[in-house]
Each structure stands twice: as structure tokens, then as C-alpha cells.
Design brief:
Blueprint (H helix, E strand, L loop, with lengths): L1 H29 L3 E3 L10 E5 L11 H16 L5 E4 L10 H11 L7 E4 L5 H10 L4 E5 L5 H10 L3 E6 L7 H25 L1
Parallel strand pairs: 1-6, 2-3, 2-5, 3-4, 5-6
Helix pairs in contact: 1-5, 1-6, 4-5, 5-6
Amino acid sequence: MPRLASTLALTAAAASAALVAPQVYARASARGDVHLASSGDFAPADAALVLGARVWPDGRPSRFLRERVATGAELYHRGDVNLLFLTGAGHNREGLDETKAMHTAARELGVPDEALVKDPHGYDTRESARNAWDAGVSSVIVCSQEFHLPRAMWLCRSVGLDVQGAHPPVLSTRWHTARGYVREVPATWKAALEIAHDAL
């Protein structure tokens, strides 16, 4: 019985390690290139890659989306980037335009229209990265929540982008933030499989 218990414990430990392996790799590969938006610890880049998120039925950006746009605006006003590449679903599951909400929020934050590019075909993070690359962008500062950045940066690197990550303050006591960290484990596995498939 002790031997069986030991075997089961080792099996469970191995399964747990396998489950989190892609997330561990993503975080390790992003180390040193992820910073709080207000830190100013960024090398200049071609653009801020502002990733889409939920929009409310009245067209207002959700808190996560507004934070992402505000992060990009902060990078622009500090001179780290000259362009915000606003990428998301132009027609999401609710029929709403994420990039329209992002554009409105960026203008409200003082970013001029000529510094804004809307990409309504960014239906997932890798597609957003590809679209930026195809638009002639070679280096980006990805703007998202901290929990999302390691995976997003890995996906950006997989399409050839030079990448850094910028995030708003981490509000770990919020339920949506905690859920975001949990959801990144399977999401990063999916990203790893996509990257591996395209490399074949």
C-alpha cells in the first residue's frame, strides 16, 4: 500500500508538472521583458500592440479592455511608441466591435487619430500578432493584463515580432484577475500546440 501511494503521488506530480510546463516556459522566456506600464523600463518599439477584450452591450470597453488601452496610451505619451495597433474582433460573439471601443477610449486618453491603427481581424492573440507583422510592424510592446502577457509574447515571437510586455497594476484580489491566471494554464497549452503545429 505505501508503494502504491508513492506511485500515485509521483504520477500526480508528473501530471501537474506536464500541465503547467508551457506556462512555466512562457513565463521564463518573458522574464526581464515584462514591466508595469508606469515603470518606464521599455526600449522604443514600432508600436504598442493593444489586445482586444470584452465590450459591454452599450459599446463601452470592459475594465480589462480600458486598462489595455490606457497602458498603450501611457506608452505613447511617454514616447516609447509612436503608434497604437488596436487589434481585436470587429464583430465578436455579441456582434460588437472591440476595435471601435478601443479607438474611442484611446482618443479620450489623448492619443491622436493619426497614431491609431484599427485591426478588426484580431480574433485571437496569434492572429493579432500576425496582422501586426503583415502591416510592417517588427517590434511591439504588448499591452494586456500581467497574467496574459507571457502567452501573448510567446505568440508574438512565434510570428517574428521583437516583443516586450506592458501591464497595468495587478489587482490580485479581484475575481476576474484570479480567474485569468487559472485560465492561462490551458490557454498556454493551446498556444504551444499551435506554435508546434506551424513549425512542422
